[in-house]
Design a protein that fits this description.
Chain B: It is an enzyme of class 1 (oxidoreductase). Chain B: Keywords: Oxidoreductase. Chain B: Its EC number is 1.2.4.4. Chain B: This is 2-oxoisovalerate dehydrogenase E1 component beta subunit protein. The complex is a heterodimer of chains A (473) and B (354). Chain A is 42% helix and 8% strand. Chain A has 18 helices and 9 strands. Chain A starts with a helix and ends in an 11-residue tail after the last helix. The N terminus of chain A is likely disordered. In chain B, the strands form 3 sheets. A 7-stranded mixed beta sheet of chain B has the order 3-2-4-5-7-6-12, with helices on both faces. The radius of gyration of chain B is 19 Å and the shape is globular. Chain B starts with 31 loop residues before the first strand and ends with a helix. The relative contact order of chain B is 0.14. The chains are: A alpha/beta (473), B alpha/beta (354). Chains A and B meet through helix 11 and helix 12 of A and helix 3, helix 4 and helix 5 of B.
Chain lengths: 473, 354
């Protein structure tokens, strides 16, 4: 067996490795014929049996383990291994990769906390019109969050979920895309839809589940979707949209469209199997997709320290062979610039890009959650004020002379008025009719659904008091 | 690990298994004798050939697949339309949903039905609800998931299961299982072109074993239509997929004892054709349902309950189920686990003589 191993070129290298690995015990018994001492009971159970030929081989090696690796070696086969994926060089040093890099991956930023452009920063120029629309939509999103949250508290809608603290991610990323790009959202990105032209009335119709809701009142509030705006309907399960987005991107690639898919998700989503499936599929199938991770520190009550031990999410993109960047998610200009550049790359090179935006979920997870139970108030307060993405961006547009208090007040009051009106209208609109309970399960209702509809209608006639009066029969 | 050889259930003699001609929408011409995997292969060729937006993918499909169902497709249609995916069932299902949602025909292969469970969430929570939850703005109707199921004589726990009933509990999905090559080709083409997501279970025991004449042309068989494949008066027997071979043998044996069985291939499990089964049971007054999957919670339970609801006064004996045992699928004990011919025959006699 020793002879057989000695013919292998690789064995020379492995011999060096093994000497190091088994250093202590080997040295003591090196020249004795009892070199197999390491295979006595204490060690037998530690190494798989495949290691045994190498242990035996040690009997034929030189006296000092270190010498054999320092011998010059001209044979190119000894310097590396041709292995699928490229040449792998050999190393005499037994070195484990560190679990975490010495320095954390840096975070790309354009605006400092005071809204100044950081000198030397590279970013995409934005004209005044786009810059102002970004700000106006961020303010609209803030206002929506305040008013819908209140509407839920008053019992007028059943559920709501805010995006407070993540306005820059929502709006600036949307601004960097084109309408042909296809969005597969999670649920904290209504701003993308807002940017694309979803009206306040459309938001309200959905949250009230009335007959004008595109989802026909079938899902909880905030599960928006809009075919016209290339925004896939939200589903509650975490990460399921990621592999779907890869399929969407594959279709765009096959159709040679000048467009990409973008999918949004949080830090918690990176623990799901679908996340890993999607990144791997995207890398292997080479598709134009942007993975946008909103690392906001909290998955309901679970902080990222209990979610993963890697350096955030960005490093996972790289691990799958995907070009990746970490950006300051509360810096609208950085988010805009990174997504803009990512979009160009994914389309021109047909390769995925991973964007991790560092931010903070300033609001509770949802209206069913009280986050003060699991995180300190001053932490929330710090992010709500000192790190607020909207006021930081406002300082920049003010400095450009594009904004002032008067315009601000007008905007906020107009948005509020418009939204309250939309809510009033949405609230008055009747619910979708009972027949919509049975449509769209399949393209055409099968006989069992016809039967069930018939028997339900009979039951409603018999016991009308059991059923909500605002659903037309 | 993958089984590379189907067939080999030792107790069963190899013979052709026929399906009735009446069900075929177009008249048969230039049919060739084909086994089941070749019929699937022919259907996939036609699907890709007739629709430039059709794609076939999954683990190992590029070289032809571990059961050879995708042989020759990559060479003919190119690696962009026929390709391997990473080894990840949830990824395959999720990717397929996205592809289908863009107006493509996504024909995904899950290598064994035993390995479909990582994809369960994508199939149940995503594919099945895609149309409904969006108010019909989006749908993934172009999705067909093909997967080999069932016993093969040596598959043990993880190459033998029949998980169809899990998917029959999910509104929005269709579940289809063919019994023979001709059926497989026509039903698969219908599934691929149906505007709803379909899980298509292929009886891997029959991939090589079942051989019959299969029309070469493009044809589809209707979904949600059961087929009476043997007329009879004394008892109605309902099954699907590979189990129909066993049921045919049991019917032959029963006939020798003077019992006339009406045999129905359900073909589509959801939405299923209650009317055909009801009409038959109304005539015979007796029902036996048989499947390989464990009896408890199997789709046989649904058929039993529905028929009792509809035919209570016509029934002359309790509805009987002859199914797999409520154990994990056992290797050495497979002959004991299976709903074999004699188990079925005994149940037929007991029901008729009740």
């Amino acid at each position: 067996m020793a002879c057989m191993v000695s013919r292998s070129r690789m064995a020379n290298q492995l011999r060096g490795k093994m000497s190091f690995l088994l250093g202590t015990c080997m040295r003591s018994s090196w020249t004795s014929s009892k070199a197999t001492v390491c295979s006595t009971s204490a060690h037998r159970h530690r190494f798989p049996s495949s290691f045994m030929p190498m242990l035996l081989f040690q009997r034929f090696s030189t006296a000092k383990a270190g010498e054999c690796v320092s011998q010059p070696c001209d044979d190119p086969n000894d310097q590396g291994l041709d292995f699928p994926g490229g040449k792998v060089s050999f190393s005499a040093e037994m070195r484990f990769l560190s679990g975490s890099p010495e320095e954390r991956i840096s975070c790309y930023r354009v605006l400092d906390d005071y809204g100044h452009i950081i000198s030397g920063s590279s970013f995409q120029q934005i004209n005044k019109e786009v810059a102002l629309k970004i700000y106006q939509d961020m303010v609209t999103l803030q206002t929506m969050d305040i008013i819908f949250y209140e509407a839920q508290r008053q019992g007028r809608i059943s559920f709501y979920l805010t995006s407070i603290g993540e306005e820059a991610i929502n709006i600036a990323s949307a601004a960097a895309l084109t309408m042909d790009d296809i969005v597969l959202p999670q649920y904290r990105e209504p701003g993308v839809l807002l940017w694309r032209g979803f009206t306040l009335q459309e938001f309200a119709n959905h949250n009230f589940g009335n007959k004008s809701d595109y989802g026909k009142g079938r899902q909880m509030p905030i599960h928006y979707g809009c075919k016209r705006l290339n925004y896939f309907t939200i589903s509650s399960p975490i990460s399921t949209q990621l592999p779907q987005a890869v399929g969407v991107a594959y279709s765009l690639k096959m159709d040679r469209k000048n467009a990409c898919a973008i999918t949004y998700f949080g830090d918690g989503a990176t623990s799901e199997g679908d996340f890993h499936a999607a990144l791997n599929f995207a890398a292997v199938l080479e598709v134009p997709i942007i993975f946008f991770c909103r690392n906001n520190g909290w998955a309901i009550s679970t902080p990222t320290t209990e979610q993963f031990r890697s350096d955030g999410a960005v490093i996972k993109g790289q691990a799958y062979g995907i070009r990746s960047i970490r950006v300051d998610g509360n810096d609208a200009l950085a988010v805009y610039s990174a997504v803009r550049a990512a979009r160009e790359m994914v389309i021109s090179e047909c390769q995925p890009v991973f964007v991790e935006a560092l931010t903070y979920r300033v609001g509770h997870h949802s209206t069913s959650d009280d986050s003060t139970k699991y995180r300190p108030l001053d932490e929330i307060e710090h992010w709500r004020t000192a790190r607020d993405p909207v006021s930081r961006y406002r300082k920049w547009i003010e400095r450009n002379g594009w904004w002032n208090d008067e315009v601000e007040d007008n905007l906020r009051s107009n948005v509020k008025k418009e939204l309250l009106k939309a809510i009033q209208i949405a609230e008055r609109l009747e619910k979708p009719a009972i027949n919509e309970l049975f449509t769209d399960v399949y393209d055409e209702a099968p006989s069992n659904l016809h039967e069930q509809e018939k028997s339900l209608r009979e039951m409603i006639k018999k016991h009308p008091e059991d059923y909500p009066s605002d659903v037309p029969i | 690990m993958a089984l590379r050889r189907a067939g080999g259930r030792l107790l069963i003699p190899k013979r052709a298994f026929s399906s009735s001609l009446e069900a075929i929408e177009k008249p048969q011409k230039d049919g060739k004798m084909l086994n089941l995997f070749s019929a699937i292969n022919q259907a996939l060729h036609i699907a890709l050939d007739t629709d430039p937006r059709a794609y076939v993918f999954g683990e190992d499909v590029g070289f032809g697949g571990v059961f050879r169902c995708t042989t020759g497709l990559a060479d003919r249609f190119g690696r962009n339309r026929v390709f391997n995916t990473p080894l990840c069932e949830q990824g395959i299902a999720g990717f397929a949903i996205g592809l289908a949602a863009m107006g493509n025909r996504a024909i995904a292969e899950i290598q064994f039905a035993d390995y479909i469970f990582p994809a369960f969430d994508q199939i149940v929570n995503e594919a099945a609800k895609f149309r409904y939850r969006s108010g019909n703005q989006f749908n993934c109707g172009g999705l067909t998931i093909r997967t080999p199921y069932g016993a093969v004589g040596h598959g043990g726990h993880y190459h033998s299961q029949s998980p169809e009933s899990f998917f029959c509990h999910v509104p929005g999905l269709k579940v289809v299982i063919p019994r023979s090559p001709r059926q497989a080709k026509g039903l698969l083409l219908a599934c691929i072109r149906d505007p709803n997501p379909v899980v298509f279970f292929e009886p891997k025991w029959l991939y090589r074993l079942s051989v019959e004449e299969v029309p070469e042309e493009d044809y589809m068989l209707p979904l949600s239509q059961a087929e009476v494949i043997r007329q009879g008066n004394d008892i109605t027997i309902v099954g699907w997929g590979a189990q129909l071979q066993i049921l045919e043998q049991a019917c032959d044996a029963a006939a020798k004892e003077g019992i006339s069985c009406e045999l129905i291939d359900l073909r589509t499990l959801i939405p299923w054709d209650k009317e055909t089964v009801e009409a038959s049971v109304s005539k015979t007054g007796r029902l036996l349902v048989s499947h390989e999957a464990p009896v408890t919670g199997g789709f046989g339970a649904e058929i039993s309950a529905s028929i009792v609801e509809r035919c209570f006064l016509r029934l002359e004996a309790p509805v009987t189920r002859v199914c797999g045992l409520d154990t994990p699928f056992p290797l050495v004990y497979e002959p004991f686990y299976m709903p074999t011919k004699n188990k079925v025959l005994d149940a037929i006699k007991a029901t008729v003589n009740y």
